[in-house]
Design a protein that fits this description.
Number of helices: 8
Distance between the termini: 39 Å
CATH superfamily: Vaccinia Virus protein VP39
Strand content: 15-25%
Shape: globular
Length: 221
């Protein structure tokens, strides 16, 4: 099967169950206009994040990798009035665009963008006792994925859902001799999940507009 059918089915799902309103389409437009990489989750994946947030009654969410705020908006819309999402973005330009998109979506009161390297900001969040988080979505730079997950565990409670995107890498995870640091990073995470007794986890392969990849989904025991 070629990727065109995957994209068509993604569009079919989006039209039925994950329609994008103007705030979301404006966010996608800003990605193209501002020269930001087009690597946000798809609409069905955004809806999946919403379903997961609702499943755990998320009131406190942590996201690593804001980009232009597309997934942030999907997640923030599930929060109650007193809910919050902390989202971490390394690139100052991306963060500035994301803030405008979040403002445009009317979600400023629920979203707090932290600018900097996640590996530096996570210890601060831990020290400030800003957890526990009900849901953690990891979609940042891949080499330290295992370390991000370990911080997520420290910032979780029993029942917290942790989701890590891009952990199949078009099947490249099967290459034991890879020199790609991104692939090596997710390989380290995936192996860690196989031995971590603090979570029940699986990896779901994904296809669609974002081609072939996968998400790791873990629930903290």
């Amino acid at each position: 099967m070629d990727n065109l059918i995957f994209e068509k089915v993604d569009n079919y799902i989006a039209e039925l169950l994950a329609p994008e309103d103007k705030a979301l389409t404006d966010t996608l437009d800003s990605i193209e206009r501002e020269g930001i990489p087009s690597i946000s989750v798809s609409a069905p994946q955004g809806k999946f994040l919403q379903v997961m947030a609702l499943a755990c009654n998320a009131k406190n969410i942590l996201e690593l990798g804001t980009l232009a705020g597309y997934s942030t908006i999907w997640l923030a819309r599930t929060l109650p009035e007193d809910g919050k999402i902390i989202t971490v973005e390394f690139d100052e330009h991306h963060a500035a665009v994301a803030q405008k998109n979040i403002d445009n979506a009317g979600l400023s009161a629920k979203v707090n963008i932290r600018i900097g390297k996640a590996i530096d900001i996570l210890p601060q969040i831990l020290a400030n006792e800003e957890g526990p988080f009900d849901l953690v979505f990891i979609d940042a730079d891949k080499p330290p994925y295992k370390e991000y997950f370990e911080y997520a565990l420290q910032l979780s409670r029993p029942g917290t859902i942790i989701i890590c995107d891009n952990v199949v890498r078009n099947g490249a995870i099967l290459d034991e001799n890879t020199t790609d640091e991104r692939v090596q990073g997710v390989q380290r995470l995936n192996k860690f999940l196989s031995t971590c007794n603090k979570v029940t986890a699986t990896i779901m392969q994904t296809v669609g507009a974002k081609e072939y990849d996968g998400m790791a989904i873990a629930i903290v025991k």
